[in-house]
Amino acid sequence: MKNFILISLLLITVSCSVNKQKLLLFNNEYYKYGYIDRNGIVVITPQFDNAYSFGQFNLAPIKKNDKWGFVNKKGVVVISPQFDFANNFKRSKLASIKKDGKWGFINKKGTIVVPPQFEDLGDFGGSKLAPIKKDGKWGFVNRKGTIVVPPQFDEIRSSEKSNLSPIKKNNKWGFFDKERKTIVLQPQFNYVNIYRSDLVAIKKNGKWGFIDKKGTIIIPPQFEDLYYFEYSDLTPFEKDGKWGFINKKGIIMIEPQFEDARNFGKSDLAPIKKEGKWGVINKKGIIVILPQFEKVRSFGKSDLAPIKKDGKWGFINKKGTIVIPPQFDDLWNFDCSDLTPIKKDGKWGIINKKGIIVIPPLFNFAWKPDKSEVIYVRFGKRIGYVNNKGKFIGFTQNDIEKEEQKILERKHKKTNNFGG
Known about the structure:
Number of strands: 43
Number of helices: 2
Oligomer: single chain
Radius of gyration: 24 Å
Distance between the termini: 50 Å
Helix content: under 10%
Strand content: over 45%
Structural class: mainly beta
C-alpha cells in the first residue's frame, strides 16, 4: 500500500497551526539535555543524560543515572528517575513505564496504577482499554490494571484517536471495539491500517478497500492499491494498472488514467505521473502542469511544490514555472514557513522562498516536524533549532565548529585503535 511508503518520505503535509509547546529540548557541548524557550533562553539547565520533548500535561520524560523520571516546565523533577524507560503522558493522563523488564502505567503523581507485568503494551488513547502483551500473546487491560480481554491475539495495534483496534490472529487481521469490548470484524484481512482519516484501509485477497471506525465496510476491497484519505475528500487508487481518484463513498471522481498519483492533501492540486514524467492535476482531473519532471511532491499549504529534474530538487509555483532551479540533493516543502531545509553535498542548510541560501549547508540533518514553527537541526551529537528568521536557537556557529572537531577526533581515534 503506497501510502505507508510516503510516511517515510521527508515531505509530509502538515497543519499550519502553531505547536503551542513553548519549551524546546536541546543539549550542550557535554551532551547534557535541558530546555530553552523560543528565544534561546535556557529555562531548564542541561543536566539530564537523555530527555524527550514536553507532551501533554506539562511533563517530560528525563533520564539521569541510567533511570527515567519526569520533569515539569519549571525544571522540578516531579517523578524521580526510577524506571528503565518512560514514555510521555497521553490523553489517558497515564504514561507507560518499564521497570525490571516489564511494562505498566503510572499517573501524573508517579503512582503506579497498572503494575509492571507485561512484555509490551500500547496506549489507552481516549478509551478505557489498552493493548498488553503477556506470555507472547496480546489482550486488553483496563485503567485499574485488570485484564478484561485475556491475551489471545498475535498482535494488536494501538489506535489513539479511535475505539477501533486492529487485532491479528492466525496471520489475519480483524477489529476489536474497545468501547463495546467485542470483536466487530473477525480476523479476515491480509493487512489493515488506521491513519489520519475517519476511514480505515483494509486489504483482502489482494484488493484494498475501506471500513469506517465502527467496523462497517464502506468501500469493499476492489482496488490493487490506494492511499489513505488525508486532509482531503479524494484519494488515489489503482485499478488495472492505472491510477485515478475516489471519494469517501467509493465513487470514482477521476477515472484511472495515470501511471501513478499522490494525495491532494491540504492542496487543491495533486501530483500525477504520465508517460514516465510527473505533472499536476486539479480536483476535476484536469492537468494544470504538464508532466515533465522526474518527481513532484505536494504543494501542501504552500504556493510552491518540490520538483526533481536531472537528479536535483527545486521548486515550482502553481503555474508550473520553476522559481527555484533544481540544484539540491533533497529538501522539505515550505508549507507554512518562508524557510525550508535543503540538502547539498551531504549537508543540510536552509533557503527562503526566493531560493536564497539563508544558512549554508552545515548540518548533518534538518527537518520540520508537524505543526512546528522552528526547524530542527542536528550536527554531530548536538541538536538545536532555527527560527523563521534564520536565527540559531540553542547553539552558535562556534558550537558547530567544535562539534566538527570532535567528530574528526573520534574518527582519528577509531582509525588509530583499528590500526593498533
